[in-house]
Amino acid sequence: MNSLRQNRSRFQPCLVKFAAIRYGELLPRDHSGADSSKLDVLCAADQRNAIQQAVANCGALQYAKVNMKLIDLLSGDFFSQYVKTGNILMLSEGRPGVDNVFSLHDGNLRLEVNKPTYERAGLQGTPLPNEGRKHVKARFAIDINLRQPSMVRGHKGFERILWACRNVFDHSITWLFCDLRSMGAVQGPIMDFHPLVQSVEASIDQLDDAFLPGFAGQLDLSDEGDATEILEWITMANNLSPRLQRGDRIDKYLSRYAVPQGNGEPNNEDSREVGNLTRLRWRGLLPNHFVHKVLVAMLKASKETWFSASATSFSGENYTILKTDEQTYIWEYLD
């Protein structure tokens, strides 16, 4: 126990941002940002068929896992068809903030590297902020727009990049690849590298007899504690936790969790609303505009009923949207 208390100081608190917005503000025009590795959609079970049909209309999604060197991205048909004129998304293996990680999107190559690698590469970059964390090694970001007219062989700047790829970033790594122009198929020059193609489909699960928070009307989530309790319920429901079910008989010494009622209502088990929940889950490389299409489909299918959507990015950022009959709430988790 003493060692646990001593180690608590090593962990950084989680920063949660919360906002309530109008219905029309939910869909921004700019969908830039971190792409997702997981998407959970939660709704009432009686909306399952309508929502399942709506998300099916979003179309098929495929991505590929492939082993390539960084120099391969800047050579041959891959460079001319995908990078210069196409629109692909690629993410390399590695832990963000720890390992050297690379990404390519819309012709923009981003290299996030540690200080020794940055100094060896000899490319211009900017230091990444450590947000005041102690004992964090310096890291740098190198951003290169490969669609500039100067990014051609023979140009001094491009030859310097090729030199760094041959002498510093010279090892083969695993990438996730998605062609944003043909979401339903992996084809073209990528096939020369023998990719492992993955299809993304939603898995559907149900949680029966679950206690529900008070979604009727406009929730009063002006209090940070109430907003956090609703977020906790959504997270537990996404994980199909048995703690939410009416028949749960866990020992009170192990869990004293109670579903939040909100609006100052007493927490009486007999008066709490019970319903069946459906969860749709996607896992894989989920581009932002695919997540946006799912969200638009959910808004059209849900009509006056509630639903929530939770996304987790590869960089560890988390977002949750709760749409009720009158209001929309958004949570953003930042480590």
Automatic annotation (TrEMBL):
Pfam families: Ribonuc_P_40. GO terms for cellular component: multimeric ribonuclease P complex; ribonuclease MRP complex. InterPro entries: RNase_P_Rpp40 (IPR013893). One of its GO terms (biological process) is tRNA 5'-leader removal. One of its GO terms (molecular function) is ribonuclease MRP activity. PANTHER family: RIBONUCLEASE P PROTEIN SUBUNIT P40. This is Uncharacterized protein.
